[in-house]
Amino acid sequence: MLCSPYDTDATYGRKIPTWWIGYKVHLTESCDEDAPRFITHVETSRAGNGDVDVTPLIHQALKEKGLLPKEHLADTNYAEAKQFVQSRDEYGIDLVAPTRTDHKWQAKERQGFDAGSFQIDWDRQKMICPAGRESSSWTPAIDRRDNEVLKIKFSIKDCRECQMKVHCTTAPRRTVTIRAKEHHQALLHLRDRQREGAFWELYRTRAGIEGTISQGVRAFGMRRSRYRSMEKTHLQHVIIATALNLVRTVAWLEGVPLAQTRTSKFAALALVA
Questions:
Q1: 66 pLDDT higher than 90
Q2: What stretches of the chain show up as alpha helix (H) in DSSP?
Q3: How confident is the model at residue 1 (pLDDT cuts 50, 70, 90)?
Q4: Domains in the chain, start-ordered, CATH in brackets?
Q5: Is the pLDDT confidence value at 17 over 90?
Q6: CB count, 10 Å around CB of 257?
Q7: How far is the CA of 137 from the CAs of 86, 112, 242, 252, in angstroms?
């Protein structure tokens, strides 16, 4: 769809509640404690593209540069089950990101039977519900985000007669949608992992990239494209990233410490109290 008569490459993007037209910039930086934090890759995409679609492009670019990390700390929007598996299998990267929560009412109320309450027999392609009933159908499909999923349905007769139906579904029968086997197992492993304090201690390091984005926006106007077309906008992003690296090199040589997260005056009052 043509979104702007001035720049045919630009598209609409949304980060609730804000809409804009143009592009997205995706920054990757090093975060070793004993070295300066250099931006190692810059990726520019259309504003309407999903962040998760950029993850394999970033990893491939880092591979070509010989800069693949062992661990890649990313925002949730850059990580889906398939990306965790692909990053591990193709690039040897441990993609560290919080997984998306289950937004269905069964999980939210913590009284119903969410997808994790069902047992899976992968060999027989059967799912067993908490009441001990087996699924009646097992159908591979592709969801709207291009993920391989399995749509598993139970018998209407079994669900109608079940005394635990009130905790399971309001529909005539229960339907559960899960990812393909390898992706589903990776998702379960990661959800277990992020229940541990060590995960969040490691993930705290990612706060630095928010500072990088803020520095790029406030000091170098990164959110304002000076040119038309994605190629020229990407060049602008690369030049800004280069300038940031130069500024950081000078700061490192002069022994300037990294800035700490600022505490608002209102939050400071709460700490005093």
A1: yes
A2: 55-65, 81-91, 105-109, 156-161, 181-193, 197-203, 207-220, 230-253, 265-272
A3: confident
A4: 11-98+195-259 (3.30.420), 115-182 (no CATH)
A5: no
A6: 7
A7: 28, 22, 55, 60
